[in-house]
Structure formats: C-alpha cells, structure tokens
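Predict structure. Chain length: 171.
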Amino acid sequence: MGLDYTALLTKGIDGIISQIDEKLSSLDITDIKNVESIEFYTALKAELEGVNALAENYRNEALRLYEATSEKEYLELAQVLENVPKKPAKTFREALQSVHFFTFNLCGLYSMGKVDDFLYPYYKSDIEKGILTPEDAQELVDCFVTYTDGVADEEVFADIEGDTSYIESYN
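Prediction complete.
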C-alpha cells in the first residue's frame, strides 16, 4: 500500500481533512453497511489531526530554542512548520518536511514510493526561481535521508541531474 504524498503536498493535511469531512457527511450513519467506512475515515481524521498537533508542538519548540539560542536554523524550521504539513507545500524544503513528518508519524510502516515523482516539481520550481541551489537541495536530501533513518531507500534520491556518486558514498 502506498500513501498519497502528492495529495499531502498539494492539499496539506487540512485539505485532506476537509475531504474526509465531506465523505463522512455523505455516509448514512443509520446504514450498517457504512460502519466500517465511518470508522476508517474517523480514525484517519484523528491520525491527521494528531500529525498537525505534533507539528505545532515542534514549531513551538523550535521557536523556544530560537529565542534561547538565536540560531537561525530554529527560526527557519519554525517558519516551515507554520505552513506544513497543515497546508500545501510551497517549496522543496517544505515538501521534504511535510513528507518527513507524515512518514515519521507512521513509524515508516509504509513505503514512500517514488519520491522523485512528488518532490521533483518543488525542486525544479525552487531552482528556477533561484531560491534553492543544487548544493542546498543535496544538503536537505541528505538530512532527510538521515532523519528517516532507513525508512527511505537511498537509491530513490539519485541526483536530479543523474549523478549518483553521493549514493555510493553511503554504501
């Protein structure tokens, strides 16, 4: 089973919750055939609300650490977590953070699939806008792979331009 990371990135968790609410409101709760669907969508909504709450806690902690240390990385993380995973990702960094948070909360139980399919548009857009360099993207991907601690298959992170030499350095 694969998760719909494209929906996560383009709609955000709040957008997915809205879809769940629409589905739940369309189900007749008096019809016994709908019990499993209602339970499924209710549990899914609870999980997603939990991911949002955890992201908010991480954002608050990042702000606290920034105030205590003045290290800009904490402020940058808080700014990213202000948007994702709750809202649609706008940048490559936000997309990576959203995928990481979602996968982290599922304890790596599901494959991320072909991450290049859903991350490449963010990479390409940021490169074209000049807000991201290939070197900065590589650092973000390296951190992502490190933080997912084996959840992600390193082979799917081959350099967008086709250079896979950095993957070999991990082996």
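Summary: The longest helix spans residues 35-69.
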